[in-house]
Description:
Elements: H1 2-23, H2 30-56, H3 59-82, H4 87-104, H5 117-134, H6 143-164, H7 176-198, H8 201-208, H9 211-222, H10 229-249
Helix pairs in contact: 1-6, 1-7, 2-5, 2-6, 3-4, 3-5, 3-8, 4-8, 4-9, 4-10, 7-8
Amino acid sequence: MFGVVLVTQLVGMAIAAGIAALRGEPFPLGMDLVLCVVAGVMGVIGISSLYRGLAVGRMGVVAPVTGVLAAVIPVVAGIVLEGWPATLVLVGIGLAVIAVVLVSRVQDDRATGPSGLREALIAGVAIGLFGVVISGIGEGFVFSSLTVIRGTQAVILIIAILVMRAPWRPPRNAVPAPIGIGILDMAGNAFYLLGVQTGALAIASVLSALYPVVTVLLAALLLGERVTRDHAIGIALAAGAIVCIGVGSA
Length: 250
């Protein structure tokens, strides 16, 4: 686990640093730097807890709990900090939360053993707070901020590996996958950061929380996995949520 996450963070940091240099972005200082470091801490706690929960617990518990918390916390923070959005947008947010629950539900054959609820709660809260914290980073700091965030996460992972003496080298034939994950993860964070800097936190966070819908669709298209009734309803609600939020924000 540590090796995969570490590779993704290092790849993301290298790409973000290169783009920041090409764009001439200034290095974040003061409160922006503090927010980047805090976001890095929240991010590494969230992703590590999520992986741990999926490893020791039940997916049917870990996935929806993490997904809902990661969606709801930034939405609530956005409403508190920025005020209530339009009624149609609120309807879209409600549909999106229900969609996240439905598309995150999986067939769970492990009826006994640990549920992973504790890890899911930690992961959901940490990922949700990550979204809130990076929304406070000033405009103009996108890839330079992501460089600091990824660097912070990499340092924490290295310390954890040294302290726990945990194995971290991923198999050589498995390296391309973490590299691809690192690229996509960095791109997702960059678009989210741009979204909260130019729009509303509640809207950007709930739309980004719909990523399980894409996962389900890709699994069906590329891996031939069956789309359950709950998944189909969730996908339909997600589409409705996007329309409501888009129209309500116009």
